[in-house]
Amino acid sequence: MTTAPEDPSSLAVRGAVGDASWEQLQRFSRLLIERGEPRGVIGPREVPRLWSRHIVNSMAVNSFIPRGARVADVGSGAGFPGIVVAVTRPDLHVVCIEAMERRCAWLDDAVSELDLRNVDVVAARAEDVRDEFDVVTARAVAALDTLARWTLPLVRRGGVLLALKGERAAEEVQGAGRVLRRLGAGSWEVHEVVSPLDGSVTRVVEVRR
Fold first, then answer.
1. How far apart are CA 185 and CA 81, in angstroms?
2. Which of 151, 165, 172, 201 is the most buried (most CB within 10 A)?
3. What 8-state DSSP symbol labels residue 105?
């Protein structure tokens, strides 16, 4: 039996995104619970922590994305962080890149249900995409050295890769240094972003090309 989701009624979260985006996030969360979980795009164990672990966690990249940027989200899956970024940053154009057909179908449905005019869904592997973006995001896709090989070619010169990582983010960065330099990265840094929902820390690895 699936446990009820956590109550996201935090004024801090609502204040961080504004009323319109807040309502869209509420719709997205209901969509994930009512349709996404039965379709297998999120597991039943994720429902109780949907907001803290997935939605608010995805918002951590927002402060590192310049206004009006063209963003590629690699391995979008259920829509993290791509759909969340598109909802909370309507000034951006987001391209959700996903290789699995079933997840692409879900993303298309979510975009339609939420009436998101600033999102495109591309059914492809990152390494097969021939395009460049101001920002590339990724969450729970691969270790940083592997992720960099897939994503840095998509980052334009002067652009940035934003990877959402766990507690071992600094270790991953240290281990990926040689690969990052070979791929043309100019600098990289680990940022710790505090959640407005529960005070937990999300680590964003910022790699500048």
1. 22
2. 151
3. H
pTM: 0.92
Reply yes or no on whether the pLDDT at 4 is more than 80: no
Number of domains in the chain: 1
Return the closest-CA partner of residue 118 out of 96, 135, 97: 96
Q: What is the pLDDT of residues 32-63, one digit of tens each?
A: 999 999 999 999 999 999 998 999 999 999 99
| Domain boundaries, position 183 | 60-208
Rg (CA), the chain: 16
In a domain, 28, yes or no: no
Three-state DSSP at 121 gives: strand
Comparison of pLDDT for 198 and 5, the residue scoring more:
198
Q: 205: which residues sit within 8 A by CB, 6+ positions away?
A: 144, 161, 162, 163, 164, 165, 169, 172, 173, 188, 189, 190, 191
